[in-house]
Amino acid sequence: MAAKLEKLEGNKAKLEINVPANKFEEGMAKAYQKLKGKFNIPGFRKGKAPRKMVENFYGPQVFYEDALDEIIPQAYLDAVKEHELDVVSRPEYDVLSIDQKDGVVVTATVILKPVVKLGKYEGLKVKKPVEKITAKEVDAEVNRTREQNARWIDVERAAKNGDTVLIDFVGSIDGVKFEGGSAEDQTLVLGEGRFIPGFEEQIVGMKAGDEKDINVKFPEDYTPEFAGKDAVFAIKLKTVKEKELPELDDDFAQDVSEFDTLADYKKDVKKKLQDRADMRAKAEMENQLLEAVAKGIEVEIPDVMIDDQIDYQIQQMSYQLMYQGMKLDDYLKYIGKTLQDLRNDYRESAQEQVRMRLAVEALLKKLEIDPTDEDIEKKYEQLAKEANKTVQEFKDTMSTQEIDYFKERVAMEQLFDYLVSKAEIEEVDPKKEAAEKKKAAKESAKKEPAKDSEKKAAKKTTDKKEKDAGKSKAAKE
């Protein structure tokens, strides 16, 4: 099979593909086998008429569509491979001629991945957050672990914020119970604000065994069925429990870690927090580098690539909603948007994602970054060692998808290593920067009212001048 290539404007290309008669005949034979059961030919049981009889009765064209479906996709793939095209769209076919002796001539119009012109990628200026973990942060992390290991003890006193209560409740609106408004043995931590406003506050002060009706109002931004409506909940308080925190001592350290002393446990906590901070700094720096490289490229991105990325992002969102027990259609109704609205919302981020991907691919090619089997195996060994596992044990924890993309992961690390080695790096204190931004925001907020008052004063002055001028003019007249 031969294929002619014609490059068109807008990253398009047209392939003219000649499928020989013998390949077309193979397609016709398969089409006959697929369709023969549909034909009624006099003198033959249904589906038993020879192909020649069917063609004589209905014409050979009866098999053309299915025959083309059998042969064109492979012929197209062969043509793409022959011309080494990087296609980003589905082909649009146009059959020019069909002849059982001469074969088939068909065109396939496709959109190609755009050519990327790289900008600057060496000497990029980036900020590296350098965060030093403080004793206060270590204590906060230790206290979080302490909270997670707390015990809940039954108490006889009145419930207060921070307590966990067990309740039954029945809700009603205008005296009528509503769906989803009742529950038994519902656990609730008072003060966390997980229920509608006013609900938890009215349980504070109740004791185990108490029953009470509480009045609440659903927020205006609640689901349309209940938004803004008054409701009454009949509450029965079953138990009140208070949190008992473990003592912060060596026994605690032994219970929650592999260390014998609290001091050693805290050292380990500090190390882990520092490792996380360093990883965040690395990720932040890598993002800055990628954004800078992507911003510097020149490229004409086809709409189909952006649309495909939007499809992917919506699909991921749909999966996340599914795990939460919600369908995408129901979510769209809840937020009052259409699918097209959602696509429009995603368009800008999708375009940036595609732009970044094209920039990375172009730079990997430019720098000839292609990890070897040895590079990949070394990375497996490193990660396995960090996880205290053998390489095989580590691989067993990975999904098929993670293994498939592992080479790409190694390539990205090599790319980042290169970009960082060539970058101009300024170390900054993220906490100090955050404090300065907060201070600047406060100062800006203070200046705004002053500006408003200045405008009002200026307006009053102008109005007064105009008024005086009017009086003067009237006097002259």
UniProtKB/TrEMBL annotation:
Q: What is this protein called?
A: Trigger factor
Indicate whether ATP-binding appears among the record's keywords. Answer: no
Q: What's an example Gene Ontology biological process for this entry?
A: 'de novo' cotranslational protein folding
Q: What is the lineage of its organism?
A: Bacteria, Bacillati, Bacillota, Clostridia, Christensenellales
Q: Which InterPro entries match?
A: PPIase_dom_sf, PPIase_FKBP_dom, Trig_fac, Trigger_fac_C, Trigger_fac_C_sf, Trigger_fac_ribosome-bd_bac, Trigger_fac_ribosome-bd_sf, Trigger_fact/SurA_dom_sf
Its domain comment says:
Consists of 3 domains; the N-terminus binds the ribosome, the middle domain has PPIase activity, while the C-terminus has intrinsic chaperone activity on its own.
Q: What class of enzyme is it?
A: isomerase
Recorded superkingdom? Bacteria
Q: Which organism is it from?
A: Christensenella massiliensis
